[in-house]
Amino acid sequence: MPETILKLQDVAIFQNENLILNNVTLEVKKGDFVYVIGKTGSGKSSFMKTLYGDIPLKQGYGSVVDFNLKSLEEKQIPFLRRKLGIVFQDFKLLSDRNINNNLKFVLKATGWTDTSKMDAKIEEVLDKVGMKTKGFKFPHELSGGEQQRIAIARALLNDPELILADEPTGNLDPQTSVEVMRVLQEINESGRTIIMATHDYALILKYPHKTLKCDNSKMFEVIQKAV
């Protein structure tokens, strides 16, 4: 039996005092790929933020990569995030340094000290996303799709058990979105678990996986044809 990476039971998600999603029950196993869809404001991002500790879980039971979200303390959040790879819509690359140094910054911040090990890890993750020759470029010298590949490489640095991709193709044109999606597919096929919030129904049809919809404060599974 694959191990459980994420388990939520009767979870309510609040943004400040506002109830965003209610009665969320979900189990995600190692190696799963799960889409989260829904209109803007339906709760996709709030759901993702709860998983990486940005929004506290006040109601229900939640466990992510063996961390209890209900009893998660502020000082534990960095340790939780080291077991997660988080990919955002807007890349969040540091503009004042090249790609290698962007990735080195993350490694140093998460406790790496050996320069040769850091260099080897950076080369490995850039190779995985097809960007091995771009390490000396600065973010502004790369296209949007290339920057998102770097963001995915950054998410892989600490061998995460779960990758959370929040609208990773939201700022990209359709062709580039497909290229980024292929990278995520390959990462998933190598055994990694991915949860991806998206607006992009064309991608969901092209690469079908389990799909959860946020609507009317609820989260429920939808069958692909009904999307």
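(ticket continues) Second input and output from the same batch:
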Amino acid sequence: MENIVEIFEMGICCLIPIYQQNTGNATKLITDQGTCFIDKRMIKTVLKLLCKHYTIHMESCREKYGTIIHRQLGVPLPIHSRLLLIPLKMRKPMFGKDGAYGYVNLYGIESLEEQNGYTVICLQSGIKVPSLHKLQTVRRQINQAKLVAGNIPTVQSGEGVREALDVFYETCEHPATKADIAILTKEILELRRVLKKGTLIHRNEELKIKSE
């Protein structure tokens, strides 16, 4: 089996809870290219490893974005700029702690199909993933994920800054329009705000340490 970090780096499109013969409760990982891997650990464990790999505090994310969509359960989980996981019911668990939900990347969904009253998620890689939700419910989950995506700060981390710079360098050979300048100004102001906030937090921590 591939190292799970290497699988994460390939790009995760879907995490599915499965029952593996001679193994029991396991997780099926589908990459952006459609390659499938089986990990012997429960999906809850694999999800925690994914969040740890990208330094995401899962519970804080769920609390923050759950407030935005007015939900406590089934909250979409943004991992990075190209990975936003939508929780969807994918199996009937044999035991209570096994878990019924899997996760599909919002940006990996091509289309939806209805089949026998349930939903089939068609991924961009061509793989089809069944869900035990009705089509209307899956559409609602996708819309809520889009709402979460729209509320993610444009500059969250060093990765976000690097991506913004990459886009700038790719387009800098072309003459800048007034619209380009307006967008760039907005992004600079947002970056200044985030950096200023980080500086204030750092100073507050220093003052707290000195006072102790």
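Agent notes: Residues 158-211 form one domain. The two ends are 49 Å apart (CA to CA). Closing as not reproducible unless the customer responds.
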